[in-house]
Design goal:
Layout (H helix, E strand, L loop, with lengths): L8 H6 L5 H19 L4 H5 L1 H10 L6 E4 L6 H9 L34 H14 L6 E6 L6 H13 L3 E7 L10 H10 L2 H12 L9 H17 L5 H4 L3 E7 L3 H13 L3 E7 L7 H5 L25 H15 L3 E5 L9 H6 L4 E3 L4 H13 L3 E7 H4 L3 H9 L6 E5 L16 H6 L5 E3 L4 H13 L5 E4 L17 E5 L4 E6 L3 H13 L4 E6 L1 E3 L3 H7 L5 E5 L8 H11 L6 E5 L11 H7 L4 H13 L3
Parallel strand pairs: 1-2, 2-3, 3-5, 4-5, 6-7, 6-8, 8-9, 9-11, 10-11, 13-14, 13-16, 16-17
Antiparallel strand pairs: 10-15, 12-14
Helix pairs in contact: 4-12, 6-7, 14-20, 16-18, 21-25
C-alpha cells in the first residue's frame, strides 16, 4: 500500500504522479475504516482528499502556514503529517484531536474549532511575515459553510485591500458563490490551470523584476487584460471586487489541475482566492447520498454506514418536539438555528412550521440580533444554539436583547462538558456570561420532564430574556419534575450538603448514597434557576452552618458556587466549610463525559471522597 510508505509530507512530494490516484483511494478507505470505529467528521474529509494531497505536493506546511477554518476537514492533513498511526485514538481522552492543534504538530499552524476566522488569522500571519522580512506562504482553507459567517467577510475585506500575499482556498462543496456561469468561464478556467499557461505567466512577470507593477509597460498590459476580462466576463466576482485575484472554479478532485493552480497562486505575490469545487462524502456511497448525516457521526458499520448505537431520546429531541407543540398552541412562536437544525432538534419544527423557521447559517451573532428584532415586534423567538457557539453572540445578547429586556428564549444546547470534540466545543462559559447579564433568567432542567415544563414556562410565563441550558445526550437516573420552584431539597441530611443543577444532580444523588453507606448523612439541594438567585429562598435553605459542596461543570470565576457564597455571606448564613467542585481555570480536553467528570473530580466517587475527607478531619 502506498499510504503505508507515507510518514511525512516529503514522502507525498516524492510520489510519482501515477501513484497519486491510488494514494487518494487509500486515504478514503483509511478514513472510513478509522472514523467508523471512533466517530468523527467523515463526509467533509472524504471531499477534501485530493485538495489536501495537492496542498502537500506544492507547499511545506512545516514552514508555510496552513490555517483551517473550523477544522472539520483536517483528518487527511493529519494522516499525511506523521499521525496516521494515532487514528485509533481519534477524539479519545489523551489521543489525537479531531481538530488542528499546534501542540500536536508543527504542521498545525493554528487551533480551529469555531468557524469563519481563518482569513483574519491568515492575514495576521502574512503581516507578521512581511514585518519580520521572512519568506513563506500563508494559506486559509475555508469552506462555503464557514463563508456564511460575518467574520469571514471582515477578514476578506481587509485582506483584499492589504495587498499582502496570501492564498484563500475556498472549498466549495455545496453553495454556489461564483456568479460566472456558462462555457466561456469554464474554458478560461481550463486554460489558466494548464502548465503552459502557468509557465508563460511566470516568465512574463519575471521580465519586469520582483515588482512588475512599478513598470509602465506591465501596468498598461495589465489594464488591457482587465478590460478584456471584464468584456468577456462582465460579472466580476465578489472576491475580485474586494481586491483578490480570483482563480477558479477548479475541479477539486483533479489533482493535476489543483497542483498547477496552487503553484500559480503562490507566484502571484498578492491576495489570491482559489475557488475549488468538491463533493462532500466523495468516494463513499452512503456519505455521498447523505453528506449532512455523515458530517459528524458516532461509530458506524463501515460497509452499510449504519450507526452501531441506536439514537435514543435526547434533550435536543425533547426540546424540539416540545417547541413544535407550543408553536401549535401559539402562532407567535418561531424558531431560529445557526445551521444546526438536526443537531438542535429543530428539524421537526422546520417541517411543521416552515414559515416560522429560520436558518441563519453559521452566523450566531446575527441569529441573536434577528431574534431581538422578532421579539421587538411581538413574536416569541426561540434560538436553539450550542453553548460553545452562543459565545459568538455575546455582545448581541447584551446590546440587542438585554438592554430592552426583550422576550427572547435561548435553547442552550450542549451545555457543560460535551465529550470528544474537546476544548473548542465544551459549553462551560454560558453559566458565567449569561448569569452576569442583567435581567436574564437562566433555567437548568435535569431531565426531560423538567425540560418540557421549563420550555413552556420560558415561552409563556417569564418576561424578558430567558435561557434554558441542557446537556448533550439523554437523561440520567433522576426522573422528576421539580421545576415549580427555583430551588428544591431532594434529600434531607444533617452532616453535609451538596448543591448542584442540571445533569450533574445525578452525581450529587449518587454521592449522597455513597456517603450514606459510610454513615454520613448528606443533604442534596437542587437549583432549577441559577440566575437570578433568590436571596430569600437561599436563606431559608441554609439556616444551619454545615459543610457545603457546590458541584458544577463550569469554570470557577463567576460560577454559581461563588455567587451563592457571596449571597449567603451578605446575610450571615455562611457554611462552616465551602467546597467548590468545578473546572477551575483549566480547559477540558477531549474525552467521554464520565472520563472528564472523573478527571476534574465531578463524579460521585470524587464528591463523596472530598466530603469524607472533611468529616475525617472533624469539620
Amino acid at each position: 500500500m502506498i499510504l503505508e510508505t507515507i510518514h511525512s509530507p516529503s514522502d507525498v512530494k516524492a510520489l510519482k504522479e501515477s501513484e497519486l490516484p491510488r494514494l487518494c483511494q487509500e486515504l478514503r478507505e483509511f478514513l472510513v475504516k478509522n472514523v467508523s470505529r471512533t466517530g468523527g467528521h467523515l463526509a467533509s474529509n472524504l471531499g477534501a482528499v485530493e485538495l489536501t494531497v495537492a496542498i502537500h505536493r506544492v507547499f511545506d506546511t512545516s514552514r508555510d502556514r496552513l490555517i483551517f477554518d473550523v477544522g472539520h476537514q483536517c483528518y487527511v492533513h493529519k494522516a499525511l503529517t506523521g499521525r496516521k498511526e494515532l487514528f485509533s485514538t481519534l477524539r479519545q481522552m489523551g489521543g489525537l484531536s479531531g481538530f488542528p492543534k499546534p501542540y500536536e504538530s508543527v504542521h498545525d499552524a493554528f487551533i480551529a474549532g469555531h468557524a469563519s476566522n481563518s482569513v483574519s488569522v491568515a492575514l495576521g500571519m502574512a503581516r507578521a511575515r512581511t514585518l519580520q522580512k521572512q519568506d513563506y506562504s500563508v494559506l486559509a482553507l475555508i469552506g462555503d459553510g464557514a463563508l456564511t459567517g460575518g467574520l469571514a467577510y471582515e477578514g476578506l475585506n481587509n485582506a483584499g485591500a492589504s495587498g499582502e500575499p496570501l492564498i484563500v482556498i475556498l472549498n466549495d462543496n455545496g453553495m454556489s458563490i461564483d456568479p460566472n456561469v456558462g462555457a466561456m468561464p469554464t474554458h478560461l478556467t481550463a486554460l489558466r490551470s494548464k502548465p503552459a499557461y502557468y509557465h508563460f505567466k511566470k516568465w512574463y512577470r519575471g521580465l519586469f523584476g520582483k515588482h512588475p507593477m512599478e513598470n509602465g509597460l506591465y501596468r498598461f498590459n495589465h489594464r488591457v487584460k482587465i478590460f478584456l476580462k471584464k468584456t468577456l466576463l462582465p460579472k466580476s466576482t465578489l472576491f475580485e471586487d474586494m481586491g483578490f485575484t480570483y482563480l477558479g472554479p477548479v475541479d477539486g478532485h483533479d489533482l493535476d489541475r489543483l497542483c498547477n493552480v496552487l503553484r500559480w497562486a503562490r507566484e502571484q505575490n498578492c491576495p489570491v482566492v482559489v475557488h475549488v469545487k468538491t463533493q462532500k462524502g466523495r468516494g463513499c456511497a452512503y456519505a455521498e447520498k447523505d453528506p449532512g448525516h455523515y458530517h459528524g457521526v458516532g461509530p458506524f458499520d463501515p460497509v452499510t454506514g449504519r450507526g452501531l448505537k441506536g439514537e435514543g431520546e435526547s434533550f435536543s429531541s425533547v426540546f424540539g418536539r416540545t417547541l413544535v407543540e407550543c408553536a401549535g398552541e401559539n402562532e407567535k412562536v418561531c424558531a431560529i438555528t445557526a445551521a444546526m437544525a438536526e443537531g438542535t432538534g429543530l428539524a421537526s419544527f422546520a417541517r411543521e412550521y416552515p414559515q416560522r423557521f429560520f436558518d441563519v447559517a453559521i452566523a450566531e451573532g446575527h441569529g441573536v440580533s434577528m431574534a431581538a428584532g422578532l421579539a421587538s415586534q411581538g413574536m416569541i423567538p426561540v434560538f436553539a444554539v450550542y453553548s460553545t457557539f452562543l459565545q459568538r453572540g455575546y455582545d448581541m445578547l447584551i446590546h440587542d436583547v438585554a438592554l430592552e429586556q426583550l422576550h427572547v428564549v435561548l435553547g442552550v444546547d450542549r451545555a457543560g462538558l460535551v465529550g470528544a470534540d474537546g476544548e473548542t466545543h465544551h459549553g462551560c462559559f454560558d453559566v458565567l456570561f449569561l448569569s452576569e447579564i442583567p435581567g436574564f433568567t437562566v433555567l437548568c432542567p435535569s431531565d426531560f420532564a423538567e425540560l418540557r415544563s421549563m420550555t413552556r414556562k420560558a415561552l409563556f410565563e417569564i418576561e424578558g430574556p430567558v435561557a434554558i441550558r441542557y446537556p448533550r445526550g439523554g437523561e440520567g437516573a433522576f426522573r422528576a419534575d421539580t421545576s415549580g420552584e427555583p430551588i428544591v431539597r431532594l434529600k434531607e441530611g444533617g452532616d453535609v450538603a451538596i448543591l448542584s443543577y442540571g445533569i450533574l444532580i445525578n452525581e450529587a444523588l449518587k454521592a449522597a448514597e455513597l456517603l450514606e453507606a459510610q454513615g454520613i448523612c448528606a443533604e442534596v439541594i437542587k437549583l432549577n434557576q441559577i440566575s437570578p438567585l433568590d436571596d430569600g429562598m437561599l436563606q431559608g435553605f441554609f439556616r444551619e452552618t454545615k459543610t457545603l459542596l457546590v458541584l458544577e461543570d463550569s469554570f470557577v470565576a463567576g460560577c454559581v458556587g461563588q455567587r451563592l457564597a457571596a449571597t449567603l455571606a451578605k446575610h450571615g448564613r455562611c457554611p462552616r466549610r465551602l467546597i467548590l467542585k468545578n473546572l477551575g481555570k483549566t480547559f477540558a480536553p477531549a474525552g467521554s463525559v464520565p472520563e472528564l467528570w472523573k478527571q476534574f473530580g465531578l463524579d460521585a466517587a470524587s464528591v463523596a471522597a472530598a466530603l469524607m475527607e472533611v468529616k475525617d478531619h472533624g469539620e
